[in-house]
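Researcher: Next sequence.
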Amino acid sequence: MITVAAIGAELTRDDQPHLPLSHAEIAADAAACREAGASIYHLHVRDNRGDPTMDVETFRAARDAIADATDLIVQFTSGGAVSDTEDARLAPLQLRPEMATLTTGTVNFGDEVFLNPMPLVGRFYERMRSLSILPEFEIFDSGMLAGAERLSRDSSNDHHRHYDFVLGVPGGMPGWPDALAFLTAKLPDGATWTATGIGRHHLSVTQEALSRGGHVRTGFEDVRFFEPGRLATSNAELIRRVARLAKEMGRTLATPDAARTLLELS
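Model: Next structure:
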């Protein structure tokens, strides 16, 4: 499975001129990524000024635009920007996306703090499950694996466990060569996992994930540059690189429907 994290909450057009912002741009980006080999579209949205927002109707319009253009799984963020309130972060879930991200602990995020105390994480988890949304546990540091395990232990919910290891965020776990070996050894039986490296860690984490049988996330939220000194021209260009590396390692690309089967989505 290849997930495209196409937009994020921090990037601007000054940072990456090809950043998709409008609903039409997001739909076109999703279609190009689907053709390149993506199966999941991780969705943040922006307002008319290009600022990050958790507005429900903006999410609805972007989700519908993607669905009209592709068969991709649309995965909502529940993190938003680090300044968003709990209510704002929860609001788009009422649209019942197939998946949503769930960060299972607090982490330093550059010069800021991404605050996720366990009572809040528990409320997010229960809200997702009440709406039949599959959470993707976002793991920025090893302690968050314990947070995810606590949710599973304390809840009667029975669903597929899927994790995303985000390595290289300043303040989180670096993209060390042995990071994925350590993290994946702690996963429960039957779980699936995706990994991404932020910035300069991206290619090494991608290659390590592919070699270990994992899945990969890429896109402008995680990496702006295709190579040193050259910005990526599109999210699809980043997807095509992962697809090529996967094929060279003998991995088969998952269609969105194949990904739904792997993730046990209805």
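Model: The longest helix spans residues 23-36. The mean pLDDT is 96.
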